[in-house]
Each structure stands twice: as structure tokens, then as C-alpha cells.
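User: Predict structure, ligand alpha-D-glucopyranose.
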Amino acid sequence: MIYQVYPRSFQDTNGDGVGDLAGIERRLDHLVALGVDAVWISPIFPSPMVDFGYDVADYTGVHPLFGTLADFDRLLAAAHARGLRLLLDFVPNHSSDQHPWFVESRSSRSNPRRDWYIWRDPAPDGGPPNNWISDFGGSAWQWDVGTGQYYYHAMLTEQPDLNWRNPELRAAMLDAMRFWFDRGTDGFRVDILWHMIKHADFPDNPANPDWREGMADMHKVLQLHSTDQPDVFAIAAEMRALADSYDDRVLVGEIYLPVERLMAYYGKDGDGVHLPFNFQLIDAAWDARSLHRMIRDYDAALPQGGWPNWVLGNHDRPRIATRVGEAQARVAAMLLLTLRGTPTLYYGDEIGLTDGAIPPDRVRDPRELREPGLGFGRDPVRTPMAWDGGPQAGFSAAEPWLPLHANWRTRNVAGQADDARSMLSLHRDLLRLRRAHSALATGSLTMIEAEGDVIAYQRVSGSERIVVALNLGRDPQAVPVRGTLLLSTIGSDVFTGRLEPDEGVILLVQD
Ligand code: GLC
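Assistant: Predicted complex:
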């Protein structure tokens, strides 16, 4: 299981209201008790923080807010000493506009680093070179007065895209990965991998016929030519070859694409990333029949040797407990942690955090600031972790950079740790079972036909057979399976063929 830490919000140790590396180290035992295998930390590198670290100004350093390289080394050693792996977040598609490479690149057209970014002449009318739209809204091209050309930015103006068709840039970026691998980092989550290469001719993207008022500006066009280009796979293969030149390293790719296109990121004969993030559970309607089909189809679409993975939430999307409610969040946890494949759990979901309320004067996210009021803001899912009922929930000695969730006095780690029925205990129980039963850890998955609000599937390894049955609805449901009850989301003691409302069960089936 991979656990995502959003470092600004996990644990502050130096009293500035922002989390840091020493804070992650202090809380490692929470992760061990939970049953985590690997920790992925969102970006910790020097950055002007316009996009909270996803605008990197130095790929081989640590932002002073988070600590120093020595703090990183200490955290890594402490994680390894506990049997935890540590993954960093590599942001290769773009840098900060404050990165020395970009400062050089924009200094003149003849600068040796000019081609490390994507510069184009204006269209004949003087406007942007094409109609591509930034994911944060508005044209993806920014005019540079000094050199009389536009540069491309798929994200914010302050995040110019790097030109991965330039061999020197490519080598420099792979060197940055090597830097962290050499220190012992166990792998990377690779940011927006599917954006890294654009069509060589930069043709206009087609208009999106389904765009409606209220949808994000970026969806006015389909990202046909700006993303998911065939040449991206050679880059993934280069990263993979680098990872494979070390022992036991992993690459996880951030890719928001439909399943049939996602699968290509496993690579030819497995030379792509190990785990192209499968975000379907984030976007899916919470409906048993469509989830059933999705799970079946995803498992069937995997390439030979491709290992599945599932995600319920991250720092960009609404939290699961907000999307489906408190009772179903427990069912969702059972689903996430019993499906075939590596689950990724977002910090705070293990205590059932919901999206925080952010007063207008505390909004920090550029996504919200640029397209306000449409519900795209990500601050609500980045609120501080609640550790106990003390001041600032044990997160910090100072006012946190984002407000705590409203009910932190009761919804926190210490308050749930000794309560056998808490969300935290449910997660610990699920992860304990996953470790104890190879059917759950690595077994095959077969969907069981069910009706109404029930999803059911069987996991088998050798002679061990486990059935998971989940009631996604508010009515009791009869389920035609029997077995010894290993765990119920609502704490039932036995299973008699009937799921209570909002109940999920794990059954050991003896033939
Ligand atoms: C990814 C990150 C997101 C960031 C964006 C731009 O989608 O998850 O937080 O804003 O990339 O780097």
C-alpha cells in the first residue's frame, strides 16, 4: 500500500504552520501501525510555491520550508529502518519560471538553454501559436516581450513546459532522478506523465462539442495534440531503464486517461512505468453496477505482467468521505484495500477526513484563484492532518497554513487509535488482513454476479479463497455467498447471507 503525504499538511515541527520533513519522520510510527508499505511525498524541492511545489526551481534540493538534504537523508534512513519505502514526486513536464534554466532560456533567443523550453513565434495575427488551453484556464501560451516569442505552459504561466525533445534537457532531467536514486530513494511518482511530449507541429486542438458553461475552461478543447503522444513512451522507457539499473525501485505515473489509453503506459513488454495510476474510482459514480463493470474491465484490460493499482483520492480531487458520505467511506476503504493491485491512500482518509471549509480570505490554491466559485479549488482536500485534540490538532504550534477541518477535536488519530470501531481501526484491520492472506495480497480476482446495490468478488491464491461483498446502498441485501466472517465494516459478528445497509464484509470460504 502506498500512502500519499502532502508535506505542507502532515506535521509541522518548526512552528511555521507548514509541515516539514522532520514532521514526517516524527509520524512514521503512525504509518507503520497503519500497515503502510511505501510513502509518496508530494514535492519537497525549492520552489516559489505558486503551485505549492509543483513549480520546481531546483530538482536536486530541498525547500527550506521542509528542511535540508540532511533532513531528507535522515527521514529516508528512519523510513528504511522501519521497513518503509520512500517515493518522491518528480515533476518533469515543467519547471518553475524561476528555475535558472528558464531564466537563461528566456534571456535571449541564442541562449544555449533556449531550446530546453518550448518557444514559438506568434501566429500571423500576432496571437498565440495555436488554440491550446492551460489546465488552469486561459491560453497555454505566454508572450515574452524581451525575446518576442511565446512560451508554452500546460499549467500555470509560472510553470513553463520543458522540451523533452531536446537531448541535453533530457539528460539533465534523468541526472536529477539519478541524484535521488543514488541517495537511496525508492522511486518516484511522475507528475502528469501523459503531457510530457506534444505533437511536433503544434496543430490546433479540436473544439470539445460537449463543453458547457460551468465546465473548466481547459475542456473547451480536446487535448488531442497536446497530450498522450506516441513519443512519450520512449521517455517512460528511459526512466524505467534508469530505475531498473538500481535494485528494487518503482515508478508510478500520474496519467488521467481512459483505460484503453492508460494501458500503453505499462510499456511494451513492461518497459513503461510500473504503475500507471488508475484514477477510475475517483471519477466514478458510486453505483454498484457501473463499478462492477469498471473493475472487471480494468482487470481484463491489463497487459501481460501488468500489475493493477487503485486510487480513491489525492491532493487534487475531493475526498472520498465527502463524495460518498461517512458510512460509504468505510465501504470504499474495504473496496480499495481488497481489490487486486496496489492501493494508494491519501493522508487523512484513514481517519475519514472530509473536505475542509475554506473561508474566502484563506484560499491559497491557484486553481481556485484563477477560476473561482466553480468548485475546482483544492485547498479543501489539503487541510492539516489531525493528530490529537490538543492545540492545532497536534499539527503545529502555530496557526496552520490552511484551516483545520471543523470537527478535528473528535476526528483525529489519537481519538480513533483505541476505538475498535473507528475508521482508523478499520484501515488497520483491512491492511492486517491484506498482509495475512495471500489471496488478498496477490490472489486472482473474479467478479461475482450480484444485483442491486451489491458488488461482490472473489480473490483466490492457491487453496485460499476469499469473498468480498459490499452493500453500496441503504437497504439490506441478500447475498448468495457463505463463509467465515473475517471483517465487517459495521462490526457484525457473523454473516448469515444478508448485508446490512452500508455494510461490507470479507469472508473466508472453505470448500
Ligand atoms: C499534477 C499535480 C497537481 C499540479 C499539476 C501541475 O496534476 O498533481 O497538483 O497542480 O500536476 O504540476
